[in-house]
Amino acid sequence: MALHLHTSPAPHALCNLLLSLSAAGDLPRGQQLHAHLLKSGHTPSSSPSSPLFILSTHLITLYSRCSLPLLSLRAFLDLPSPTSSSWSALISSLSRNSLPSLALLTFRRMLAAGLPPCDRTLPSAAKSLATISDPSASAALHSLALKSSLSPYNVFAASSLLDMYAKCGRLADARQLFDEIPERNVVSWSALIYGYAQFAGLEHEALHLFRAALQPGGCGVNDFTLSCIVRVCAAATLLELGSQVHSLCFKTAYDVSPFVGSSLVSLYSKCGLVDNAYQVFHEMPERNLGAWNAVLMASAQHGHSSLAFNRFQEMQRLCPHSPNFITFLCLLTVCSHAGLVSEGRHYFSLMSNYGIEPNSEHYAAMVDILGRAGKLKEAIATIESMPVTPTESVWGALLTGCRLHGDMETAAYAADKVFDLGCEGSGAHMLLVNAYATAGRYAEAAEARKAMRDRGVRKETGLSWLELDQGKVHTFVSGDRSHSRMEEIYGVLEEVGKKMEAMGYVADTSWVGRDVDGEEKRRSVGYHSERLAIGLGLLAVAPPRPIRVMKNLRVCGDCHNAIKYLTKCTGRTVILRDNRRFHRFENGICSCGDYW
């Protein structure tokens, strides 16, 4: 609808109208009003003291909220004498619309013009520094805030600095500033919780702060705080605690937030309850791009390929945002887990239609799709076509395909490429060792182990864990004897093992990486960490509840086959998450279709 102004309204009426259009994000009528203001001579006002001058600042905000920061800049440049409010509106526009470098340049120009920072300009500068993750510049901004008396006593400025430090990975500085703020608000608490939540191994610190924020001395929580804590629970697969936080979200009405909702989808998916994840998604009143990506990844992790593709089509119809690089990474992961080569090629090429350049993660996924399907030559050609240097994950994907299809020469070539990158992890080394061992080439496997030791690389310990009632997590390693119920665990596994053998199960000892006698090989594979965790689940998890086990490494072929037999002879359901995907074992069948 066109905007009709038959008379020249008073300045305050024009301001109110422009504010309304800005709040609604009504760009067409906002631009009509801008044109009217220019034609009528109301803008740009030559005097900062004029009541019409504020219209120019509102125009900067209008274009900011319509995601047109360069038009905000144009409106700013029309001003003969920008004020502090004008600079603040422009810096905020550039910062919130993904132009952090330009926002910082504008902030520096403001300082050069003799205007000091304030509690409106400093947070935008801090946000921009957090986006580009510049630790040295973040300290300089903090110093400027101290000189300007904005930190730590101005809670808005100090909280933005705290958030900046947390997102730049400077947790010690973030914690020190947090302790210095005399009156913290919910942003202060949320920023520090986020800082701890994003680093592995610091989840308990994040949870401790979260509990403190809920106490009478704290400041409560908001949707950002809750989404951070839900992500912590998802990363650590703490289902019981995550469910309690979900209840809190419901009680505080924050469950309607798309940020909280997308985190809850990830929580239930990563804890193996994908139907709960789908239910949360369906009940979300508002879905942002993160929510769509979360549900796509849930479908990918659980092998629901058809559902994922249908969901992507639904997203294209209903989601106002275009797919991003994460969306296509989810789709390529779906194709990798299901062995869908042509579909993988389709989605890889479709990225260009949305102006997305594939990064190393997309190439790794595409190489994984081709390698697992045995198309190793095409996988190598894909690597050679990369516009950037292939990363460890790309060569690792090729190495995995070589192991699956017994191509030892290409496996050694891929492993050498990984070693040339100077990677210190044990992943590529163990893939090469296992590839040789699976092919029965134990001498080469031993040499690969020796090379690994000579480089000072230690094999990552295989761990499996499950969460029982009251949220207690029980962790096992292969051949573990430390659990208080270990005698019962070994007893139930031996009892079930006899039933499995009666049904036709035979241990596949080719998964043992050393050339030892057959009996020792059978004992080695028989008490892998995931089997011990399942043994405890048989004792402690009442049917019909599924036994949910998490594992940090890929499940071996023998354990995968054994768990199928176990579910068939016990009637139990086992949900196992390894480092690649989820496996739902039920009645002797795995949801992965033996393709993993």
From TrEMBL:
PROSITE patterns found in the cross-reference section: PPR
InterPro entries assigned to the protein according to its UniProt record, in alphabetical order: DYW_dom, E2_motif, E_motif, PPR_At4g14850-like_plant, PPR_rpt, TPR-like_helical_dom_sf
PPR repeat segments: 83-117, 154-188, 257-291, 324-358
A UniProt-annotated Pfam family: DYW_deaminase
Coiled-coil residues: none
Assigned keywords, A-Z: Repeat
Superkingdom of this protein's organism: Eukaryota
Keyword Flavoprotein listed: no
Domain DYW: 504-596
Transmembrane regions listed in the UniProt entry: none
Protein name: DYW domain-containing protein
Species: Dendrobium thyrsiflorum (Pinecone-like raceme dendrobium)
